[in-house]
Automatic annotation (TrEMBL):
Residue ranges of every copy of the HIT domain listed in the record: 7-110
UniProt short sequence motif Histidine triad motif, positions renumbered to this chain: 94-98
Active-site residues, record numbering mapped to chain: H96 (tele-amp-histidine intermediate)
PANTHER family found in the cross-reference section: ADENOSINE 5'-MONOPHOSPHORAMIDASE HNT1 (PTHR46648:SF1), HIT FAMILY PROTEIN 1 (PTHR46648)
GO molecular function: catalytic activity
Annotated protein name in UniProt: HIT domain-containing protein
Pfam families: HIT (PF01230)
Protein's organism: Candidatus Yanofskybacteria bacterium CG10_big_fil_rev_8_21_14_0_10_46_23
A Gene Ontology biological process term: nucleotide metabolic process
């Protein structure tokens, strides 16, 4: 079930612009507009639920299956040293898994991330990154 006022539910319904890279029955994936590194993707369940541990098992497994596949694609296309995951959700109250291409351990513990001062790529750069992930 989707929520009419939720920004990520609006992304799923196509009411809010996103740079989509993947969609199936359980999940929707799109480029983070403020990436830690190029190739940073958000994967969300097609159900409005603020906390991942409250998703039903089928939705959770569908979500994490997509996360696994997309992580492998991001490793291949962006060639980071590691691919990391973050599930926090302080900003938007709809479960979202950050898939982060990591070149350094501190990519997910950096001061700039903690302070919300991440990169601000252009729409062209986001489109290019989305196309790299979709065109495996
Ligand atoms: Zn939602």
């Amino acid at each position: 079930m989707l929520d009419k006022d939720c920004k990520f539910c609006q992304v799923i319904r196509g009411e809010e612009k996103s740079f989509k890279v993947f969609e199936n029955d359980f999940s929707f994936a799109f480029m983070d507009k403020h990436p830690i590194n190029p190739g940073h993707v958000l994967v969300i369940p097609k159900s409005h639920e603020p906390d991942f541990y409250n998703l039903d098992n089928e939705m959770y497994q569908g979500l994490m299956g997509a996360v696994k596949e997309l992580s492998a694609t991001i490793k291949e296309k962006f060639n980071p040293k590691k691919v990391g995951l973050i599930v926090a959700g302080f900003d938007v109250p709809h479960t979202h898994v950050h898939i982060v291409p990591m070149h350094d351990y501190h990519d997910i513990t950096s001061k700039s991330l903690m302070e919300g001062k991440r990169a601000n790529p252009s729409e062209e750069e986001l489109t290019e990154a989305a196309n790299m992930i979709m065109n495996l």
